[in-house]
Write a structure and sequence with these properties.
The chain is α/β, with parallel strands linked by helices. It has a single domain, classed as HUPs (Rossmann fold), CATH 3.40.50.620. The chain has a 4-stranded parallel beta sheet with strand order 3-2-1-4, sandwiched between helices. Helix 3 links the parallel strand 2 and strand 3. The longest helix has 17 residues. The radius of gyration is 18 Å and the shape is globular.
Length: 239
């Protein structure tokens, strides 16, 4: 059985177990959300809703999201949140760039769950193993989901699966970005390429550090340690 079929079967099982009808996905125009959307469409056909939620988003991302939806006949809905984001930043005290930028994925999470509740769907997240490992996601933002269909795949494996699914090359080949601010890219923000990151994660998992740069290993270990709170159950005080 192919990897794509294994994931679609897993999706069907998870949705049925939750007594839900389908899934809702935030479609960004990036490769991760493209792969999840196509897999969901294979699993549920008419019970998939991909929501495009622009917030000062690039025209290319919107174009790519619609390109994917059209090619694979995925039902979409566009909800613009520029004005909501603007009003929030007006009433909140000034903060650093990251605090302001993280409002975007947290607002998107609210919208995804609104539609999930409305339709009795689950929210399928688009995080991959590489990002989850080092905490490269917004807590209670794009990290606030019910399912992680590609959460067990490294970014390099997601790219390979995207090719097998025939995702448009324009989506696969562009620089990965969370779209938090203009010109932002994942690799620049993390300070490491996905190729280096994936190689290092594999080394940590296997205990084989041959060919691994010590400074890169130290960096990845620090990222994993500092982001542990994002992936752990909420600590509860017990008297």
């Amino acid at each position: 059985m192919s990897l794509a079929n294994k994931i679609t079967d897993w999706l069907k099982f998870q949705v049925e177990k939750a007594n839900s009808k389908g899934v809702v996905i935030g479609l960004s125009g990036g490769v991760d959300s493209a792969v999840v959307s196509v897999l969901a469409q294979k699993a549920f056909k008419n019970n998939v809703l991909a929501i495009i939620i622009p917030c000062h988003s690039s025209a290319k991302d919107l174009k790519d999201a619609n390109l994917l939806a059209k090619k694979f006949n995925i039902k979409t809905k566009e909800i613009k949140i520029d004005s909501i984001y603007y009003e929030l930043t007006k009433i909140l005290p000034e903060a650093n760039l990251l605090a302001s930028a993280n409002l975007k994925p947290r607002l998107r999470m609210l919208i995804l769950y609104y539609f999930a509740n409305k339709l009795n769907y689950l929210v399928a997240g688009t995080g991959n193993k590489s990002e989850i490992a080092v905490g490269y996601f917004t807590k209670y933002g794009d990290g606030g989901v019910d399912l992680l269909p590609i959460g067990g795949l490294l970014k390099t494996e997601v790219w390979q699966l995207a090719k097998e699914l025939k995702i448009p090359p324009a989506i696969i080949e562009k620089a990965p970005s969370a779209g938090l601010w203009e010109g932002q890219t994942d690799e620049n923000e993390m300070g490491i390429t996905y190729k280096e990151l994936d190689k290092t994660i594999i080394a940590i998992e296997t205990g084989n550090y041959k060919g691994i740069n010590k400074s890169v290993l130290s960096k990845v270990n620090k990222l994993i340690q500092c982001s542990a709170h994002k992936k752990s159950p909420i600590p509860i005080f017990k008297p």
